[in-house]
UniProtKB/TrEMBL annotation:
Its main location: membrane. Pfam families: Glyco_hydro_9 (PF00759), Glyco_tranf_2_3 (PF13641). One of its GO terms (cellular component) is membrane. Its EC number is 3.2.1.4. Residues 1-94, 112-143 are annotated as: Disordered. Keywords: Carbohydrate metabolism, Cellulose degradation, Glycosyltransferase, Membrane, Polysaccharide degradation, Transferase, Transmembrane, Transmembrane helix. Residues 10-20 have a biased composition (Basic and acidic residues). It comes from Apatococcus lobatus. This is cellulase. The keyword Transmembrane applies. The lineage of its organism: Eukaryota, Viridiplantae, Chlorophyta, core chlorophytes, Trebouxiophyceae.
Length: 1238
C-alpha cells in the first residue's frame, strides 16, 4: 500500500520529525504541559544530537542540514554505576533531555542528567509542598515522594513500599529495528472484489447507456445514478480491506516462564482509565482486571484512574489499592471543552512525563475506557508485538460487550465487519485506525504526536492519523481480549454515533488536520482516512434517497431507471457481486452481524445528517462539546420520542406507501415492474425503522431476537424477489420493424390476380385471374377482404385499407425507411389503388356520361360455401356495381379518398401515376358531391327460387351464376352506412391534401358541418364505417384549425380516459384487465389499432406545441400496440412473439400444400395449427376479454385487410415517435392523475 511509509523514515528523521510550526490559536486547544513534551520523543529512535551546553539551539533548517551532513552516531549505555550528564540542544527555550531506554549505547560525554547504576535517570528530592501551591499546576519535579497527591507521579518515581525492577544493560551497540510488515493475498477476497469491480463497470455501462432515457425525468435519474456511484465507492473502499491478510509471527515462549511469551524489553505499562461520572462499581471491575492481568516476565504496570469527576469515593478506593493504582484528579476543565477524554489523558501523561525528563522507549501507555474489562491474557498477547520493531507505536485489540445480544444488535455495537474484516485489512495495508480503548502505545509516540488530539470529538481516529503522519506503525491483535458494556438506551446509542460522526466531520473541515490536504500522508492513506467521513456522507444521502425512491414511484409514478432486459441482467450480476463483497465471511455466523451493520447504517442516517450540519456550523463558530456515553445505572432514560421521530416518520411513510402500492397493484390492468419492485423496496426499507421502533417502544427481550432473524430472511427474500421481478416483468423491447415486415407479408398474402415475383408468400400463387367487369374489363388484382367477407373483394374496406396505408407512409416515412419497409408498403398502397381504379367504369346513361362503381367482386353465397385455396376457385366471380350519378356518396367518397391518398404518396415518385389517380378521383368527386346519397339505396333485389346454385361453365369460360340468394350474392348489407357526409369529408380532406386546392377545404368544412348536424352522440369508431374522427386528425394536421384540434383531442380523451358515456350511461371505451381499450360500438381489435394510429399521428404532430399531451397520446398508442404484440402475455399478431394464434381464419394458410384436398373438414374444422403461418395478421380478438381461444371456427380468429391497415401505420409511428415506453411508465401514481388529458 502506498501509505506503508506514510511519513519520513523514523530512524533518519531528527528535528524534522517535530510538528510543523503552528499558530498559537491553532495550538491553543492542546494541553499546555504537552507543548514541551511533544518535542522530546525523538531521542528514543535517533540517539543524542551533539551539542554544547548553554549554547542556543540551532534553527530547524540548520539542524536538518547538520543531520544530513553528519549522521548521528549510535548510542550506548554507560557502564553500571557511573554517573554521567547528557547535553541536549535547546529549541524555543524548551529543554530536550531524553533517556535512551534499554538496549542502546550513547556517548558518555553528552550526559548532564545523573544516572543510576541501572541506567535510569536519578530522581532528586525537591523542596516540600508549599501551602499556596496548586496540585494541578505544580511541576512534577516538586512533588515529594511518599506524600499523598492526586496527580500522576513522574514515570521514574519509585513509590514508597515498591521495589524498582532493574533494567538490563547491554554493552553491544543496538541498531534500529525496523518493523517488517508481512501480508499474504486473500485470494477469495481478491476474487470477490475483482468480480465486483467488473460487475460495477458493466452495471454502470448499462445504467448510463440504457436506463436514462427518462424524458423529463432525466435529471432525477442522473441524480440517483450519481448517488449509486457514491455508494459503490464505499463498497470499493470496504473491499480493499479484503484483499490481504496480515501475517503475524507466533509469539516466542519464555523458556523461564513456560506457557507465556517473552518480550525483548522490560516494558512498563501505564494503564490509563479515564472516567467522569461512571460508577465506582464499573471502574472497580476495569481496574481490577488490569491489575490481575498477567504480564510477561520482567514487565511491570501502574494503573491510573484518571477521574475528571473528582469523586472522593473513587479516590478512597484507589488509596486502598497500594502504589500500583494511582488516583489522578484535580484537573480544571476548560469552559466549553470539546474533548474531555483527551484533556484528561493529556493531563495525566504530562504529569507522568514532566518537562525536562527523559522518555524511555520501554514506557508504554495502555488506554481502557471505564467499562472495558481486560482478560487475563491481555498483556501477554499485546506487549510482545512491540518487539516487532522500534517504530511500532501502537497495538490494537478489538472490543466486545457483555450486555450485547448478538441476535438483536441493530446498532451494530459488535462491529464484526470492522473488527473481523476491516481492521485485519487495515493492519495488512499499514493503516492505523485507533478505536479509543483496549490499545497500547509507546509513550514516546504519544508525546511526539502531541498527545490525544483535542481538536475533535473522535480523538481515537485523529490519534491514528497523527501516528501515521509521523511514520509510526500499528499492529492488530485479532483476538477479543477485553469486554465492555455497550449503550443500550436509545438516547445513548444515537448520542454515541453522533459524537463519532461529528468528530470525523470536524477533522474534515479542519484545514490543518484534514486528511485530504495532509501532505505527510500518502495518497492511499489520505483516501483511507477520508473513507470514514465519506461513508457518513454517503450514508446521510443514499439512505434517505433509497427510502424516498419507492415512495415517489408509488405515489407519483416516477421511477429513476428504465427497466429492461439489459437492466435485469446488469442488476442481477451486480446484486450477486455486491452481496459477495458485503457478506464475505470467514464464518457463516458473521452473516447476521454484517446484516446488522447495514441495518445500523439505515437507522443512523438522520444522525449523520445532524452531525454534518453541526460540524458545518462549528466552522462558523458554533461550539461542539463532548458528551460522554453514560453506562450502567447512570444511563439516560430520556423519552424516546426525541430519537425515534424520524424512524417513526420513515416507517409511517413506507407503510402507507406499501398499502398504496398493493392497492395500485390490485387495480392496475397489468403488473408494472417499477410498481411491483417499489412495493418490495418499501418492504425492505421498512425493516430498519420497524426494528428500531420495536427496540425503543416495545421490547428487547427474546421475542425481539426472533423478530430480527425473521427480518433478515425477509430482507434477503425481498431483494431476491425484486431482482426476480425484473426478469419476470421487464418491459419487452418489441422489434417494430419486424412487425411491420410481417404486416406487409399479410397484405401480400391477401393479394389475388397475377402476383409479382417478389410477393414473398410461399403458399400463394396467381389466383382468380379470370375476374372481369363490364365489357370483360380487367377486374383482377386487389386483396381478398377477409373477415366476414371471406374471399370476396369488397371495395369499401379495400379503399379504407389503401388510404390508411398511404396515410401511415406519409406520416411516418422515417418509421418505414429505418425498418426497411418503405418499398413493400409503397407496393401495397399501389396494389390497392390499382385495383380501385379498375372498379371505376365510365358509362353512358340517359343523362349523359356517368361513372359506375363496382362495390363487390364474388358471390357471397357461393363463397360462404367454399373453404379452400384461392388458387383453386373456379366458380363464377360476378361483379356488383352501382351508378354514381344515382347517389353513391359514401362508396364514392371512400374511393376518392383512397385514390387521392395514394396520389399524395406518389406525387414526388411517379408523376404520371399521380395524374392518373387524381383524374379518376376528380371525376368521381363530381358525381359524389353532385348526386348525394347512399350506394345501398340503389340496390334492389328479389328472392331467389333456389337457395343455392353452382357456377356453370360454357366452353371452358366461367359464367355468372343464376340468382343464388335473396340478394343475388350481394354482400352489401354488411357494408352499409347511415351517413355519407363523413365519407365526403374524408374525400375532400384528401383531395385538399393531394392538390392544395382551397376549394376542397371549403367543401370539407361544409361536409363537416352537415355531418355534425346529424350525429347525436360520439362513437369513437375509426374504420370504413366512420371517417369523422380520422378526418378531424387529418384536417388538424393540414390546417391547425381549432375545431379540428378540439375534436381530435376529444377523441383522444374518449379513448384514453374511457370517461365518455353513451345515452345509456355506459362508458363507450372500457379497458380490459390487461389494458386493452375496447370500444363498445365496435369491439374489434383492429378498431383499437386504427385509433392507436390516429393517436400516433396526432401526438407526433402536436409534440412541439403541447408536449405533455403529445407524450400522453403517444404513450397510449404504444400501450395498445404493445398489447397487440404481446404485453397481455399473448400476441394477437400471427407469427410474432412466442405465443400467438396458430389457427387464424385464413383459408389459404389453413390448407395443406397442394395437391392435398382442402375443404371445410380438412381446413376450417381441423383442430391442428395452420400448416402455413400468415405472418403479421392481426386477429379480430375476443371482444371485452383478454382470454383468446385459438380456433379458426370462431369469429375472434378472423383476419382482414381493413383491420390490418391501422396496425401497420401505428407500428411505424411508435417506432420513431418521441420518447420511449419506459418513459410512458413514468408519472402515473396514486396521487398523480392524468390531468393533462383526462
Amino acid at each position: 500500500m502506498a501509505g506503508e511509509g506514510g511519513a519520513e523514515d523514523l530512524e533518519s528523521r531528527v528535528d524534522s520529525r517535530s510538528r510543523p510550526a503552528e499558530t498559537s490559536a491553532a495550538r491553543g486547544e492542546r494541553e499546555e504541559p504537552l507543548r514541551s513534551l511533544q518535542s522530546r520523543a525523538a531521542s528514543y529512535l535517533r540517539g543524542i544530537t551533539p551539542g554544547t551546553p548553554g549554547n542556543a539551539a540551532p534553527s530547524a533548517a540548520s539542524r536538518l542540514s547538520n543531520r544530513e551532513q553528519a549522521p548521528v552516531p549510535p548510542t550506548t549505555l554507560p557502564a553500571e554505576g557511573r554517573t554521567e550528564s547528557v547535553t541536549q540542544p535547546q529549541q524555543q527555550g524548551i529543554a530536550r533531555n531524553f533517556s535512551i531506554g534499554t538496549g542502546a549505547k550513547f556517548d558518555e560525554s553528552q550526559r548532564t542528567v545523573p544516572i543510576n547504576k541501572d541506567g535510569t535517570p536519578k530522581i532528586e528530592t525537591k523542596k516540600s509542598l508549599g501551602p499556596n501551591q496548586n496540585l494541578s499546576t505544580m511541576p512534577a519535579s516538586e512533588v515529594t515522594p511518599g506524600q499523598k497527591q492526586y496527580r500522576a507521579m513522574p514515570y521514574d518515581h519509585v513509590p514508597a513500599g515498591s521495589v524498582k525492577a532493574p533494567i538490563p544493560v547491554f554493552d553491544e551497540v543496538r541498531e534500529f529495528k525496523r518493523f517488517d510488515r508481512k501480508r499474504r493475498p486473500n485470494w477469495v477476497g481478491i476474487a470477490f472484489f475483482c468480480f465486483y469491480i467488473c460487475a460495477l463497470i458493466f452495471y454502470l455501462y448499462v445504467r448510463i447507456s440504457r436506463t436514462l432515457n427518462l424524458g423529463r425525468y432525466l435529471a432525477y435519474g442522473i441524480i440517483i445514478l450519481i448517488i449509486e456511484i457514491a455508494g459503490a465507492s464505499t463498497v470499493i473502499l470496504y473491499g480493499t480491506n479484503l484483499l490481504f491478510n496480515p501475517v503475524v509471527d507466533p509469539l516466542i515462549e519464555d523458556p523461564e516462564n513456560p506457557g507465556k511469551p517473552r518480550t525483548e524489553l522490560p516494558y512498563h505499562v501505564r494503564v490509563l482509565v479515564p472516567c467522569y461520572k461512571e460508577s465506582l462499581e464499573i471502574l472497580r471491575r476495569t481496574i481490577m482486571a488490569a491489575y490481575d492481568a498477567d504480564l510477561p516476565r520482567g514487565c511491570s504496570r501502574t494503573i491510573y484512574l484518571c477521574d475528571d469527576g473528582k469523586d472522593p469515593k473513587k479516590r478512597k478506593w484507589c488509596d486502598t489499592m497500594g502504589p500500583e493504582v494511582q488516583y489522578v484528579s484535580g484537573r480544571k476543565r476548560p469552559t466549553g471543552e470539546m474533548n474531555g477524554k483527551s484533556g484528561n489523558l493529556n493531563n495525566v501523561v504530562a504529569q507522568m512525563y514532566p518537562e525536562g525528563t527523559p522518555v524511555p522507549g520501554h514506557e508504554l501507555l495502555c488506554i481502557f475506557d471505564a467499562d472495558q474489562v481486560a482478560s487475563k491474557e491481555f498483556f501477554l498477547k499485546t506487549l510482545p508485538l512491540f518487539d516487532g520493531g522500534d517504530d511500532v507505536g501502537m497495538v490494537l485489540s478489538p472490543q466486545c460487550f457483555h450486555n450485547l445480544n448478538l441476535h438483536c444488535d441493530i446498532f451494530n455495537h459488535s462491529n464484526v465487519h470492522f473488527w473481523e474484516y476491516m481492521q485485519p485489512g487495515y493492519d495488512a495495508l499499514g493503516f492505523i485506525s485507533c478505536t479509543g480503548t483496549n490499545f497500547l502505545m509507546r509513550s514516546v509516540a504519544f508525546i511526539e504526536v502531541g498527545g490525544s488530539p483535542t481538536y475533535t470529538l473522535t480523538e481515537d481516529y485523529a490519534l491514528g492519523m497523527e501516528l501515521k503522519m509521523y511514520g509510526w506503525h500499528c499492529r492488530y491483535v485479532q483476538e477479543y481480549l477485553a469486554i465492555g458494556e455497550a449503550p443500550d438506551q436509545i438516547r445513548n446509542c444515537f448520542q454515541q454515533r453522533s459524537r463519532w460522526t461529528k468528530g470525523h466531520f470536524q477533522i474534515m473541515f479542519n484545514k490543518e488536520h484534514c486528511p485530504a490536504l495532509n501532505r505527510r500522508l500518502s495518497v492511499g492513506m489520505r483516501i483511507l482516512y477520508m473513507s470514514g467521513v465519506w461513508s457518513y456522507i454517503v450514508g446521510a444521502i443514499s439512505t434517505p434517497t433509497f427510502i424516498i425512491i419507492p415512495a415517489i414511484t408509488i405515489w407519483f409514478g416516477i421511477f429513476p431507471i428504465v427497466v429492461s432486459w439489459w437492466m435485469a441482467l446488469a442488476l442481477t450480476i451486480y446484486f450477486v457481486s455486491l452481496n459477495l463483497v458485503l457478506y464475505y465471511v470467514r464464518s457463516y455466523k458473521h452473516i447476521e452481524a454484517l446484516w446488522f451493520a447495514n441495518v445500523a447504517g439505515n437507522i443512523l442516517w438522520w444522525t449523520y445528517v445532524k452531525a454534518f450540519w453541526r460540524a458545518v456550523n462549528s466552522v462558523f463558530g458554533q461550539k461542539i462539546t463532548f458528551k460522554t456515553t453514560l453506562k450502567g445505572a447512570s444511563m439516560l432514560m430520556n423519552s424516546v420520542v426525541r430519537d425515534l421521530w424520524m424512524p417513526g416518520a420513515c416507517f409511517c411513510l413506507l407503510f402507507a406507501t406499501l398499502i398504496a402500492g398493493l392497492v395500485e397493484l390490485g387495480r392496475s390492468p397489468t403488473i408494472s415492474s417499477p410498481l411491483a419492485i417499489s412495493v418490495l423496496w418499501a418492504v425492505y426499507n421498512m425493516i430498519s425503522p420497524f426494528l428500531v421502533l420495536w427496540y425503543g417502544l416495545v421490547s428487547r427481550e427474546k421475542i425481539f431476537s426472533y423478530l430480527c432473524r425473521a427480518c433478515i430472511l425477509l430482507s434477503f427474500f425481498s431483494g431476491a424477489c425484486a431482482v426476480g421481478l425484473l426478469w419476470a416483468l421487464y418491459p419487452v423491447e418489441y422489434d417494430y420493424g419486424k412487425a411491420i415486415k410481417h404486416s406487409n407479408f399479410f397484405m401480400n398474402s391477401m393479394r389475388v390476380g397475377v402476383l409479382p415475383a417478389d410477393n414473398g408468400v410461399s403458399y400463394r400463387a396467381n389466383a382468380l385471374t379470370y375476374e372481369s367487369g363490364p365489357g370483360l374489363t380487367d377486374l383482377t388484382g386487389g386483396w381478398l377482404t377477409g373477415g366476414g367477407a371471406g374471399n370476396l373483394k369488397m371495395t369499401m374496406p379495400t379503399a379504407f385499407a389503401t388510404s390508411m396505408l398511404a396515410w401511415g407512409l406519409l406520416s411516418f416515412p422515417k418509421g418505414f425507411s429505418e425498418n426497411g419497409q418503405t418499398a413493400s408498403t409503397l407496393e401495397n398502397v399501389k396494389w390497392g389503388s390499382d385495383y380501385l381504379l379498375k372498379t371505376l367504369n365510365a358509362a353512358t346513361d340517359a343523362n349523359g356520361s356517368t361513372t359506375e362503381i363496382i362495390y363487390q367482386v364474388g358471390n357471397s353465397t357461393l363463397d360462404s360455401a367454399y373453404w379452400g385455396r384461392p388458387e383453386d376457385i373456379t366458380f363464377s366471380r360476378p361483379f356488383y356495381q352501382i351508378d354514381a350519378s344515382l347517389g353513391a356518396s359514401d362508396l364514392a367518397g371512400d374511393v376518392i379518398a383512397a385514390l387521392a391518398a395514394s396520389a399524395a404518396v406518389h406525387q414526388s415518385l411517379n408523376k404520371a401515376y399521380y395524374n392518373t389517380l387524381m383524374t379518376a378521383a376528380h371525376d368521381l368527386y363530381f358525381y359524389a358531391t353532385s348526386d348525394l346519397g347512399l350506394y345501398s339505396a340503389q340496390i334492389n333485389y328479389t328472392a331467389c327460387a333456389v337457395p343455392f346454385a353452382r357456377s356453370t361453365v360454357n366452353n371452358g369460360t366461367a359464367q355468372a351464376a343464376v340468382c343464388t340468394s335473396s340478394l343475388n350474392g350481394s354482400y352489401f348489407q354488411q357494408y352499409t352506412k347511415d351517413n355519407y357526409y363523413d365519407d365526403l369529408l374524408w374525400a375532400a380532406a384528401w383531395m385538399y391534401k393531394a392538390t392544395g386546392d382551397a376549394g376542397y377545404l371549403a367543401d370539407a368544412n361544409t361536409f363537416y358541418y352537415n355531418y355534425v348536424q346529424t350525429i347525436t352522440q360520439p362513437d369513437f369508431i375509426v374504420s370504413w364505417q366512420r371517417y369523422y374522427w380520422a378526418s378531424n386528425v387529418l384536417l388538424a394536421t393540414l390546417t391547425d384549425g381549432g375545431t379540428f384540434h378540439e375534436r381530435s383531442q376529444f377523441f383522444m380523451k374518449g379513448w384514453i380516459c374511457g370517461s365518455v358515456q353513451n345515452s345509456n350511461q355506459e362508458n363507450i371505451i372500457k379497458y380490459t384487465d390487461m389494458g386493452r381499450a375496447w370500444n363498445r360500438n365496435s369491439g374489434e381489435l383492429g378498431v383499437t389499432m386504427n385509433a392507436a394510429m390516429l393517436a400516433t399521428i396526432y401526438g407526433s404532430y402536436v409534440a412541439p406545441s403541447e408536449s405533455a399531451k403529445s407524450e400522453r397520446y403517444l404513450c397510449w398508442a404504444r400501450s395498445q400496440v404493445r398489447y397487440a404484440l404481446g404485453d397481455s402475455g399473448y400476441s394477437y399478431v400471427v407469427g410474432y412473439g412466442k405465443k400467438y394464434p396458430r389457427q387464424p381464419q385464413d383459408q389459404a394458410a389453413s390448407c395443406q400444400p397442394a395437391p392435398a384436398t382442402c375443404n371445410q373438414v380438412t381446413g376450417l374444422l381441423n383442430p391442428d395449427p395452420n400448416p402455413f403461418t400468415v405472418y403479421g395478421a392481426l386477429v379480430q380478438g375476443m371482444g371485452f376479454s383478454d382470454v383468446y381461444q385459438d380456433s379458426r371456427a370462431l369469429n375472434s380468429s378472423r383476419v382482414s385487410v381493413d383491420m390490418q391497415a391501422g396496425l401497420h401505420g401505428a407500428l411505424a409511428g411508435v417506432s420513431v415517435a418521441p420518447g420511449t415506453w419506459e418513459q410512458c411508465l413514468q408519472g402515473t401514481g396514486v396521487l398523480t392523475n392524468d390531468n393533462v388529458v383526462c
